[in-house]
Design a protein that fits this description.
binds ligand DP6, Ribosomal Protein S5, domain 2, 25% strand, Alpha-Beta Plaits
Length: 324
Amino acid sequence: MTTGTATAQAHPNIAFIKYWGNKDQELRIPVNGSLSMNLDGLFTQTTVTFNTFFPKDSLTLNNKPITGAGLDRVTGILDLVRQRAGMNTSAEVRSDNNFPTGTGIASSAAAFAALALAASTAAGLHLDEQQLSILARRGSGSASRSIPGGFVEWQAGADNDDSYAFSFAPAEHWNLADCIAVISSEHKPTISSQGHTLASTSPLQAARIADAPRRIDICRQAILNCDFEALAAIVELDSDMMHAVMMTSTPALFYWRPATLAVIQAVRDWRSEGLPVCYTIDAGPNVHVLCPQEYVETTANRLRTVDGVQEVLVSKTGGPAKLV
Ligand code: DP6
C-alpha cells in the first residue's frame, strides 16, 4: 500500500465510573474497569491520508498545524497501524472538532477513537470493534470507550489484548442527556496522562480500586433498569472518590473552582426537590449534569443561573465511531 485515505467520526464520552490510574502506563492498561456513555452532540472528524510522497507525518487540528508532543502521540498510533499493515508510508492527519474549542471539554477520547478508525482503514486494515478499541486505547485510555456505541464498559483486562471496551446497551436504550456546565475554558494545569501516574501516591487509591467492581455492577444495573435514582447515587459517589484521590495524591491535584462546588450543591438541592439530576466531574472544573432528556430544558436553564457558569452544552446519548 502506497496511498490510501479514510475519514472517521467519533464522539467524546462521559464516564459514570471513572478510569484513574494505570497498571501499565505505556500500554494504558487501567487499574480498574470503567463505564461511560457517548455524547451525541459532539464529535471529532479525522481524515488520514497515507502517501509515499509525504516526507514525514503531519497533524492539523482545527486548521492549526501541531508539532511536538501532540504530533508524537499521533505518530505512536500511526506506527502501530503501519506495523500491522507492513508499510512505512508517512501520513497526513487532519482533525476537527464540531464543539467550540477552548471550552475545556476538548476530549482526547473522540480524537483517538476517530484516529484509530481512520488510520487503520486508510492503511487497508479491517479491524473489528474490539481491535479498534484496543488501538484507540493506546492513544488515550478513555478513547477505547468511544469506539462502541451507547452505554459502554471498558474491562480493565490483564494485558494489551484483553483491555478493551464494548457496548452493553445501545444509545436508544435510555434517553439520558448530559448538560455540561462550562466553568472555565483554560487549559488544564495537569493533563490526565500525568494525573494517572500520580494516582497511586494517594492513600485512598487502593480503596477506590478495591471497591470498583461493586460500583461497576451497581451502575451497569442502574442503566439496564433505567433507574435514575440508583444511577445518581453511584455516579456521584464514583466522581467524589476519584476527586478525593486526586486531591490527596502527591503532588495534589485540585481541579475544582468555587463555581464547580456551587453547581454540585445546586444539583443536590434540585434533586432533593424532585428534579432527576446528578453530577460527575472529570479532570477539570466543568460539571457534567446528567438527567433524563425531558428535563434538559429545565436543567440547562437552571444551570445558566448559577454564578460562574459560562455556558451549558447539551448532549444526548451517542452512537459508535463511524466512517464517513
Ligand atoms: C478523569 O483517557 O484522558 O476523564 O489515557 O492519559 O489519555 P489518557 O487519559 P484519559 O483519562 C480520562 C480520565 C477521566 C476519567 C474517565 O474518562 O474515565
